[in-house]
Amino acid sequence: MDRLIGRYTQGKKGPVLLCIGGIHGNEPAGIEALELILKMLEVEPITNPDFEFRGTLVALRGNVGALEQDARFLDRDLNRIWQDTDQVNDREASERAQLKNCIEAYIESGEEVVLLDLHTTTATGGIFTFPMDALGRMLAVQLGAPVILGVTGHLLGTCAAYFQEKHDNVTSLVFEGGQHLEEASTNRMIAAIVSALRAIGCVEARHIEHQHDHILTRYSEGLPAVSSIVYRHPIVIGDGFVMNPGYQNFDAIEQGEVVARAASGPIKAPLSGLILMPHYQEQGTDGFFIIQQEEESDDESFVHSTQQLKME
Ligand SMILES: [Zn+2]
After folding, report:
1. pLDDT over 90 for what percent of the chain?
2. Whole-angstrom Cα distance, residue 283 to residue 164?
3. How much distance in Å is there from the Cα of 175 to the middle of ligand 1?
4. For 4-224, which CATH superfamily applies?
5. Ligand 1 centroid – CA 120 distance (Å)
6. I need a surface site. Which of 75, 92, 181, 217 has the fewest CB within 10 A?
7. In whole angstroms, what is the distance from residue 293 CA to residue 278 CA?
8. Residue 105 burial (CB < 10 Å; 0-12/13-18/19+)?
9. pLDDT tens by residue, 158-195
10. What is the rounded CA–CA span in Å between residue 24 and residue 196?
11. Chain centroid to CA 139
12. How many Cβ atoms sit within 10 Å of the Cβ of residue 167?
């Protein structure tokens, strides 16, 4: 399995949209979406001779070794080990080194780089984005999916945050496209990538079929536009953590509600809010997150705005 899924450019100067699929090896939807979108871009100029593309789309596989085994990771979670101080030598350290080389080659070109990290969740119900800064937030809003703020304060060592913090010309965004094996997750990923290409000015809005917009806005109906993470429950290896069944992303929970169990007893929600990413898989150390809705802001006007966020 190659690290590079593919790349598309017409040789015109412009931003780089660098997409990563499968940084968790049990999340193939991002890779399927990237393969499909590269095929769509190749044939677009045949059916639409006016089609113009500025900059470059780059599609990378995240954890190649774990993807080959359909596991979230082999030795350690590749999306939690991006600290410069990390000295462990294992299979994910080698994945990280290879991925870093591929990504840095584009960052060093000096163009504006948007790093879009594509994920899916074990629970159903809802798609969402995690921006890392103000520009990422503007971009996230344009995708039309709920925006979740504050991820960097609760998750350490993510790939997206690493490149965002290190390089001035990088804006990172994480997109969660739905449940791991839901067929619709791939369509939502395609919609998010197309919206991102438009938002950063790689393609013009007139060349884009509006069905892509509707896929995400329709699925996000009734969900809060902008929320912040207020709590993360960490799983300690061997603590016997089991999530109570039936929770979906964005389900309302009350303070004191028993949401999971561990060997030490029931685990209660320390705060009221909405539950995000309840843990229904074997690997990983995030039990669940609690988010709370932000006050209404100007963000929502962006969603329906045709204004482009051009990065030149
Ligand atoms: Zn993931």
Report:
1. 75
2. 26
3. 9
4. Zn peptidases (3.40.630.10)
5. 6
6. 181
7. 18
8. exposed
9. 999 999 999 999 999 999 999 998 889 999 999 999 99
10. 21
11. 13
12. 16
52 three-class SS: coil
Residue type, 131: P
CA of 13 to the centre of ligand 1 (A): 32
Task: Provide the pLDDT for residue 309.
Answer: 46
> Which phi and psi angles does 150 have, rounded to 5°?
85, 15
Residue in this structure with the two tokens 């080194």, named with its chain if needed:
97
Q: Which two tokens stand for residue 216?
A: 């995400």
For residue 23, how far is its CA from the centre of ligand 1 (angstroms)?
7
Q: What is the CATH number of domain 226-293?
A: 2.40.50.100
Distance 45 CA to ligand 1 centre (A): 33
C-beta separation of 147 from 137 below 8 A: yes
| The two domains 4-224 and 226-293 share their CATH topology (first three levels equal) | no
Residue 297, pLDDT score: 59
Q: How many Å apart are CA 174 and CA 31, to the nearest integer? A: 14
- What is the C-alpha to C-alpha distance for residues 285 and 196, in angstroms, rounded to an integer? 30
252: Cβ–Cβ under 8 A, 6 or more apart, which residues? 272, 273, 274, 275
Residues, the chain: 312
Q: Phi/psi of residue 160, each to 5°?
A: -60, -45
Span from the CA of 310 to the centroid of ligand 1 (angstroms): 28
- 210 touches 191 (CB < 8 A): no
Ligand 1: centre distance to CA 214 (Å) = 24
Q: Show me where the domains of the chain are located.
A: 4-224, 226-293
For residue 11, report the distance from its CA to the centre of ligand 1, in Å: 32
Q: Evaluate whether 158 touches 174 at the Cβ level (below 8 Å).
A: yes
Q: In the 8-state DSSP scheme, what is residue 123?
A: S
